[in-house]
Amino acid sequence: KMDDDDDIPQLSSHTLAALQEFYLEQQQREGMKTSQGFNQYSIGSIEEDWQLSQFWYSDETALCLAKEAVLAAGKGGRIACISAPSVYQKLKEQDGEDFSVCILEYDRRFSVYGEEFFFYDYNHPLDLPENLLPHSFDIVIADPPYLSEECLQKTAETIKYLTKGKILLCTGAVMEEQAAKHLGVKMCKFIPKHSRNLANEFRCYVNYASGLD
After folding, report:
1. Class assignment of domain 50-206?
2. Contact (CB, 8 A) for 83 and 104
3. Helix axes 59-73, 85-93, angle to 10 degrees
4. What pLDDT is attached to residue 51?
5. Name one GO molecular function term (predicted).
6. 186, β-bridge pairs
7. pLDDT over 70, % of the chain
8. In degrees to the nearest 10, what's the CA dihedral of 89, 91, 93, 99?
9. Which of 173, 187, 190, 196 could crosslink 212 through cysteines, CB 3.0-4.6 Å?
10. What is the value of pTM for the model shown?
11. Distance separating alpha carbons of residues 188 and 42, to the nearest angstrom
12. Closest listed residue to residue 78, CA positions, set 165, 157, 206, 207
C-alpha cells in the first residue's frame, strides 16, 4: 500500500485554526438566518464585500436613514439608493409604508432584488437605463464608494439627474467642502455608525430641512 501523505500540502496550524473559525462563523450565521425566519432583505443576507469598498451601516443608522428617507419622500414617494444597500435593505423592511424604492449598485449580487436593482458604475454616471427617468425621485440617498473628489463629483451627476430636489449624502467628514461644492449639501448633527468601525469619520449631508439635526 502506497503511503503518499507527503504529496498533500499541509496547512499551517494557524491557517487551519483561522479556517475553522471562519467556517464556524458561517455556520452560526446560517443558523441565525434560519432561526430568525430568514428575511432576504435583512442586513447580512448579503455580506459586505471590502474589495468593492462596501461597508454596511449599523442597524440603528440604517434604520434612522431609512425612516428619514420615507419622511422626506412623502406619501407615495420614490426613493433611490445609490451605493447604499444597507439603507435599501432597511427600507424593504418598512412594511405598510407607502413608498417605492430602487437600488443603484455596482455589486451584482443585489440583482436578487429584481426590477428594483440597477447596475451602477460611478465612472459612467449617466449610463442609466431608460426607465430611470430624470428628476423622478423624491429623494436620493447616496454613499459614494470612495472618499475622493472624483468619485463624489461623478456620483453627484447621477444624484442631480435622478432627484426632484432632495439629497441625503453619506460620506467622510473630510468631504464637507466638496459636498457643498458639488451638491449644495450641508453637514447634519446626526453621525452615521458602521457595523465595523471605520478609520474615517463619517457624516451625513442634506440640502433640505431634515430630521437628522
Report:
1. alpha beta
2. yes
3. 70
4. 47
5. nucleic acid binding
6. 206
7. 73
8. -140
9. 190
10. 0.76
11. 27
12. 165
